[in-house]
Amino acid sequence: MVKEKKINLISANMGYGHQRAAYPLLKLSGDEIITINDYKGIPDWEREYWIKNLEAYEKVSRFKKVPLIGGVVFSVMDYFQRIKPFYPVRDLSKPTLQQLYFFKLIKKGLGKDLMDKLSKTELPLVTTFFVGMYMAEEHNYRGNIYAIVCDADISRAWAPIYPKRSRTKYLVPNNRVKERLVMYGVKDKNIFITGFPLPLENIGDKQEVLKEDLSRRIMSLDVSGVYRKKERVLLKKILPDVSDKLSKKAINITFAVGGAGAQKEIGKEIVTRLSSQIREGKIVVNLVAGIREEVKNYFEKVIEDSKLELNRQVNIIFHEKKIEYFKLFNRTLRKTDILWTKPSELSFYSGLGLPIIMSETVGSQEDFNRDWLISIGAGIDSKDIRYVNEWLPDMLESGRLARAAMDGFMNAENQGAYNIENIILKNKI
Description:
globular; six-stranded parallel beta sheet
């Protein structure tokens, strides 16, 4: 049965972040995500431009780990998309070189073919990639325009080149992003704090799925009962199903690499350093390869070399199609106790009650995502990976990870997808 299409949902096939933010809105878009750099009928010159753009970004992201020169090359790229310090509060509405570059291409026709096609529907256009907003405004899209922001703080690139004239309405994850957009010249009345759109299948209509998973997770992570004893009143009020019994269930760790396949070596270290606990049935590890077959093959070799059992002691989360991968990943999160990843858009998944162990940041926006995760209590910096078999048990024994899970649930918005739907379709603006 074909679902009714209520919005034109625009994203970009660049890593996972933009499409992961679009995924929870599929029911509004007739199960269609339109990728601006890879849609059916895209002009050849546009496709070629985007392919070269993506290849360059991924090469630099992977090149970062090359001693000395790798960091320098990445820093140059990151400089042009950096987020400036928030204080002192000041006018930051002047366009950046990055924006001027994109606008030059858009004026030459980048995105015009797509916007002309979609304008005929006059449906609301919802984009999770800022260039989609540029295109819609420059090429006079007929319907309303909405931009979903995918980070906890943002660069000037997210605001239009002429923000005072802009008719785009922003759906943002937190108050800091709203404050940033105002500094970039966007009108306050066009900014709505909704929270990041999280997968509906991990929440439920009334948080029943989320609370069921979180209750089980708290009992697994609080191995000595320290946290439950200290926060008994809070837990009884919010999660009455949490008991005082000590869990004997294996700790389930999910490690996710970035869209460019960066940091896969950390997954190897996790499996290698925790191999004894994995064999003893104390830990289960899920290695997230995403849609990258070369990362899947790398993880398979890691498991083989460690003499561990695939799909029992260590699982690999992989699918060649991105939407199917998201579905697999979201199902995996339901049994996950600890999410280990760099602070990308997955930072917002702390709202599902997932404690996040943060690996090294990649790019300016992830530095700010890390700061946000620490500020709400849901994120913990990874310590020296060589000694994870020592420090991870200490974290579990202290109740620190259980606290991080609860802090994420309480302090990170988890109703983003529902809030966005209300704003777009019910005109609550």
